[in-house]
Design goal:
By secondary structure, this protein is α+β, with helices and mostly antiparallel strands. Helix content is 22%, strand content 34%. The protein contains 3 helices and 14 strands. The strands form 4 sheets. Strands 10-3-4-12-11 form a 5-stranded mixed beta sheet. A hairpin with a 2-residue loop joins β3 and β4. The protein is rod-shaped. The termini are far apart.
Length: 201
Amino acid sequence: MPKREGNIDWDKARARLEALERATEARDTFTDEAALDARALALARPAEIPVLPGSQREMVRFRAAGQLYALESRFILEVMRAPELTLLPGSPPLLRGLTLLRGEVLPVVELAPLFGRPSEQGTGPVLVVGTARAELGLRTDEVMEVAVLTVTELLPAPSSLEEEAGALVSGVSPDGTLVLEGEALLADERLVFELSEEGVA
């Protein structure tokens, strides 16, 4: 027979309080475990490097003479898949030949000699480089892809690069791609050729 004082059933009230206490403990335990799980998941995630405004650039990656290069897509006007090159006897190693682009003569250059590497005799696509107009062509073995590159991930250019070629490289990607500086490439006097009937000067 439960004890009653007045109209209050104290045994029933005590049982209800105990049930509430157990429920509260269970809820607190669940909340703590859930919080710990969420914290563990957050700590397990790899750290996210913030992307700074203007730090991402669209690059065209290509291979030439066994080396990977990348150049911002804004400097590449088009890709000539199978251009006909006219070779010039006695021309410097940098000048691979001449080709016609919509009636205009375009010098096609080889990057390898700029970096102290021997040039290759193979043929491949030519990247037409310039800003307002086509200024030169870059001979490649293969145009690989257009990719977005984060500048903050670049490593410094290796000291092994010749001093005069260092200005042409803004950095090296983790996979060893040399990232070319478009403005420096177009301004390099070694890539400016005077074409005349007597030859190349």
